Structures are given as structure tokens and as C-alpha cells.
Amino acid sequence: MTAGCDKIVKDKIAIDNPVFDNLVIDNPVFDGKRKLRVLVCVSGGGTNLQALIDAKKAGRLANTELVRVISNKADAYALERAEKAGIEGICVSPKNFADREAFHRAFLSAVEEAEPEFSAPVKKFLVHGSREGWRDFDRELEQYPDTLARIPNQAADPMLLYFSSGTTGYPKMVIHNHTYAIAHIITARHWHNVVPDGLHLTVADTGWGKAVWGKLYGQWFCGAGVFVYDFDKFAPKDLLHKIQQYRITTFCAPPTIYRFFIKEGMEGYDLSSLVYATTAGEALNPEVYNRFYEYTGLRLMEGFGQTETVLSLANLAGSTPKPGSMGRPSPLYDIQVVDSDGVPVSTGDVGEIVIRGEGPTVGLMMEYYRDREKTAEAWHDGWYHTGDTVWQDEDGEEDVLAQAGKARGAV
Hints:
Blueprint: E1 12-15, E2 23-26, E3 37-41, H1 46-57, E4 65-70, H2 73-78, H3 82-85, E5 90-91, H4 100-114, E6 125-126, E7 135-136, H5 137-143, E8 158-163, E9 173-177, H6 185-191, E10 199-202, H7 209-215, H8 217-221, E11 225-226, H9 236-246, E12 250-252, H10 255-264, E13 276-279, H11 286-296, E14 300-304, E15 313-314, E16 328-329, E17 335-338, E18 350-356, E19 367-368, H12 372-378, E20 379-380, E21 383-392, E22 398-403
Parallel strand pairs: 3-4, 3-5, 6-7, 10-11, 10-12, 12-13, 13-14
Antiparallel strand pairs: 1-2, 8-9, 9-19, 14-15, 15-16, 17-18, 18-21, 20-21, 21-22
């Protein structure tokens, strides 16, 4: 966050400074019925704090209760006490400090000195370090057994909980049952086109649903090798070098990654090992499609899905994609494009993507956790309503024109 606080937007606190990497805090985070008080730790002192206070007074932080900004011991004591404010979370990122001692001085000491103001005991954990009065997370983790007791469960029992991306609304908690995993076989085998003796790379942080789409269930079921590349900051030349060095055979990434590849200059790398490339997550520019094809001879196979679903629309292996089209409906589901009354629209007309689901449906979410109202909005009349609008051409190809609460290709 700069002194001018120019990244503050409605309903969000956007912080851009040496401590954080463009952290955005959305409020309220759960059901919209309460505000979340957040303890935000930044560097920079009073100017940053005053900019936030001014923005709050000006009404630019609706639905947000700014509690405290800590940069040093003085700020920790100068601001209102944490207990009075009802602190519910602490956000801090130590990785950009020059050394751990600097981190300790800037944050840990401030927490310790503010601790007496809490009436209840404070549980303090420190990752990748040790300090008196703090529990060593890494050491305690080592003390736990490396075995896992099997707990009997049913296929219809909850297995996985995602937070939706909250692209145009607040994030929701999405629950999938144990059948979700097998529904990703089509993702890996017929969209990513993985094979047992190949090596697949999907670019996705493990905090995103796309990591499950491209690194776990489907690929493991198909016996494919999964390449994992952990990086702190994306550099197109580094990723291109990894593809060349380790002979990646199938690759999936958002269109932005391909655009950076083209800007970097793909002609300087040996990408001959690649036999298949897929993309999702945002609109694919036809120019990116065409340039990548010129460099590699590979057509980018676009797909679409949401946190609430598995692969729903796609250019599957064996089909010929149209640039700008997400492809045809998955054969797993009865998918239609309907108007606001639930009536299928004519070819070329815009409508909402809906997926038939009478009761629990393999690959589709069970519900929004603790939110019956939102669940009922999405699931009704025997259909799951995606909220995404498309039009369909005479060949059955579909493309998103607008969004109504979710992101295009949300995987």
C-alpha cells in the first residue's frame, strides 16, 4: 500500500507494500450477515494508517471494520486494544523481511506486548523458526505419528471443501463428496490427454481448485506422471526452461501464461516434447491461440468448469477447436442453455448454462456450506444453475459472453 492508498476499492482492503504481495481482504467473508474485524500488519507507520482511516471516513471501505495496522511497538499501543476491537484474524507475511530477526522485531514483539490486553489466553504458533513463548509448528508437526487411522465413510459423505473464488461476489464454501475424484477422470484423460508414460504439468498453486484438476485425482487415476514446479514469482523464461529440461509432454495453464510465453519468445526453447496443451480460467484471445500454434504446431484446447463442478464444457481430445470457443458439453452431463424461465434458448441466443442433477450428482457440489439460501438459488427444479451465460452456434460450440456471479473457466 502506498502512502496515497490508491488501491483501496469498495468492500476490499487492497494492500501493496514490502510485507504483503498485493493482499486483498474481502469482507464479510462468510454469509454476509456480519463484518470481519481484521488485524492487518504492515510496514510504513502512520502515513499508511492515516490513509486507511481517511478512506474509511470517506466511505470507501463499506462492510469493512478496520481494526488495527501494526508496523512497530508504538503503533501496537497507540491504536485501540485488540480485545475491544474483537480481533478475529491476523494477517502477516514475513518472507520479504531481510532476516528473521527483523521480522521478530517488527511483528512478534508487537504481538507479545499487546497480548496482556486479551482476557483469554492467546495461542501463538511460529512457522520456520523458534522463539520463547511461541509454539514451534515444525517441531510439533514432527512429533505427530506418520500413520492415519482409517475412518469408515460413504461415497456420498463430504470429502472436500473449497472456497469459491468470489470473483464478483463474496466467497462461498463449496462441499464435494467422495465421488468428486472419479469425475475428474475425463478432465485428465480426455481433456488434458495424459498417458501413463507421459509427464503432465498444470500451472496452479495448491491453494486453488485447479491444482486438484491438474495435479491429483484424474492424473493419478490415469497413471500419468505429474510434474510439480514450486516458484515464488512467475518468470516465463524459467517455466519454459523447465518444460524443455524435463521434457514435459502435456501442459495446462491459464491464457495469461501463454501470452507471457509468446512475449518472452518461444523460438529460443526446445518444446518438441509437448504433444498437447490445454487452457482455462479466463478468455482465450484468438491471437494467443494462433501465435502458440505457429510456434508449436499445437492447438490450445480450451475448457470450462467451476469450483462447484468438474469439467463441464471443453474441446476434448480428438476434436478440432474453434478459437474463442470453450467447446461442447461434457458427455458426463445433460447440459442446456436456458433463459430466465428455464426454457432452452435458440441457436445464437444468450442463455445460462444449467446442468441436470436429480439428487446427489457425481462431480457436482453437494451444497454451499451453512448457506441454504445460496444453495437453493443454485440448485432448484432438478438443475444446477451455474450463473454463467453463453451462446451456442449451429455446431453446438459454446462461448461465454458475460458472467453473473462467477468467473469464466473458474478452474
